[in-house]
Amino acid sequence: MPVVYFDNNATTPLDRRVLEAMMPYLTERYANPNSIYSIAKEVRQGVEEARQKTASALGCDESEIIFTAGGSESNNTVIKGVWAQNKGKGHIITSSIEHPAVLEVCQWLEKQGASVTYLPVDEYGMVHPEELAKALRDDTVLVSVMFANNESGTINPVEEMGGMCREKGVPFHTDAVQAVGKLPINLEKTPMDFLSLSAHKLNGPKGVGALYARKGQRFVPLIQGGHQERNRRSGTENTAGIIGLGEALRIAIEEQKQEKAELTRLRDMLHDGVMESIKDVTLFGHPKKRLPGTCTLAFKYLEGESILLSLDMEEICASTGSACSSGSLEPSHVYLAMGYSHEEAQGAVRFSLGRFNTQKDVEYVLEKLPPIIKRLRELSPLTPKGYIS
User: Fold this and answer.
1) 3-class DSSP state of 147
2) Of the residues 60, 165, 295, 324, which is catalytic?
3) Looking at the DSSP assignment, which residues form a beta bridge with residue 282?
4) What SS3 state is found at 11?
5) Who's near 12: CB < 8 A, 6+ residues apart?
6) Is there a contact between 331 and 346 (Cβ–Cβ < 8 Å)?
C-alpha cells in the first residue's frame, strides 16, 4: 500500500497539470517580466494571464489581484499595511482561532500601541456575527476573520460579517487560504475588502500566493524597493510560481463541484467508520458547516502525537493541527478556544483529505486505526482500569 496522505490542510501535492504549465517558465522563459525586450514581454503576458485566471476564480477585477509569496505575507500585508495607513492608530478586531500569521501580527501590533479585540467562538469553533456587532467601535480600522479554520474545518459566516463592516465603513479582511478552490467565492457580490490565498493549499506550488484588495482600499505596502505589482508589492515576480497559481485555480474552479462532493463523501465515510469502530471519540468542528475534506477527531485518554507516530509506521500521514505549530507540545489554541480542556485538545488528530485521495485510502485507515487506538489505550496511564476500547 502506498503512503496514504491525509494532511492536505498542511500542504497539497502538486498537480501534474500545474507542473506542466510551470515548466516553460523554469527553463526557456526565464526573462524578468519587467524588462522591455520581446522574450520578457512573453513572460509578462504569462503573468497577466495568471492574474486573469486568479481574478476569474474569485469573481473580481484583475487590477485587484496582488501576487505575494503566500498566505502569511498576504495577511501581514493587510494587517500591518492598514494599521500603517491609519498612522498607527485605531482598533483592530480578529478572532481567537486565527492562523498565527494573523494572531501573532495582531499581538505584535498591540506592543506598538494597537487596541485589539479577539472574538470568542462557540463549541464548533465558529465566530458569531453578534460578537462582531458588540466589538465594533467608532475607531475600528480593520476586521480580520478567517473564512474557514485550518484545524477544525469550520466555515465562518464571513459574508454576513463583511456586510456588517460595510455598513460601518470598516474594511473587512478574510484569510481564505483553506477556502479558496474548495468553496464558491464571488467577490463581486460579497462584501469583502481584502482576501488572502495560497497556491500550495490547492495543488499548486509553494512560495506563492495572492492578495485581493478591493478598489479604493488603501494600505502601506509591506515590501518596498520596487515598482512591481503596481507599487503594492516590490520584488521581481516569482513567474513560474504565479503561472502555477493561476493554473491551479483554474483547475480547482473547473472541478470544484465534483471534487467537493467526492471529498465530502470520503470525509463522512472516514468519520462514520471511526465512530462505529472506536468509542470515546469526539468530532472537533461543525458537523455540517465544515470544509469538505476536513475531519478532526479527538481520542479520549490519548495524545495525538503518539497516534501520529503509530500511523506513520503504517505509512499514514495526518496531523495534530496546524503544520505551522506542529513542533510545539502545547495543545492547539483553536481547540482551547472552542472550550476543550488541555487533555481533550491533546488527543486530537486532523485528517484532511484532498484531490488525489481515494476510497481505498479511507478503507486502509479504517483498517489500521482501531488496533492502533486499542494498543495505545492499553499503554496509556490515563486509561481507567478495566476500560475496554
Assistant:
1) coil
2) 324
3) 298
4) coil
5) 200, 201, 202, 203, 204, 354, 355
6) yes
DSSP string, 155-224: BP-HHHHHHHHHHHT--EEEE-TTTBTTB---TTTS--SEEEEEGGGTTS-SS-EEEEE-TT-----SS-
Q: Given phi > 0 = left and psi -120 to 50 = alpha, else beta, which region is 213? A: beta
Provide the CA 83 distance to its chain's centre, in angstroms: 23
> Facing residues of 194 across strands?
173, 213
- CA torsion, points 271, 272, 276, 282, in degrees to nearest 10? 40
Range 343-347, long-range pairs (CB < 8 A, 24+ positions):
343/382, 344/282, 344/298, 344/300, 345/298, 346/303, 346/304, 346/305, 346/320, 347/298, 347/299, 347/300, 347/301, 347/302, 347/303, 347/304
Q: Cell 482500569 belongs to which residue?
A: 385
pTM of the full structure: 0.95
For strand 294-299 and strand 316-317, is the pairing parallel, antiparallel, or unpaired? unpaired
Which residue shows C-alpha cell 512560495? 207
Band of pLDDT at residue 27, cut at 50, 70 and 90: very high
> Do residues 6 and 316 make contact, with C-beta atoms less than 8 angstroms apart?
yes
- For 92, 112, 128, 142, the CA distances from 138, given in Å and listed in that order, are 11, 20, 20, 11
Structural domains of the chain, ranges and CATH numbers in brackets? 4-12+256-379 (3.90.1150.10), 16-254 (3.40.640.10)
Please state whether 339 falls in left (phi above 0), alpha (psi between -120 and 50) or beta.
Answer: left
Q: What pLDDT, in 10s, does the model give residues 82-131?
A: 999 999 889 999 999 999 999 999 999 999 999 999 999 999 999 999 99
Side chain identity at residue 15, one-letter code = D
Q: Look up 324 and say whether it is catalytic.
A: yes
Q: What count of Cα atoms within 13 Å lies in the side-chain half-sphere of residue 323?
A: 14
Return the C-alpha cell found at 312.
506513520
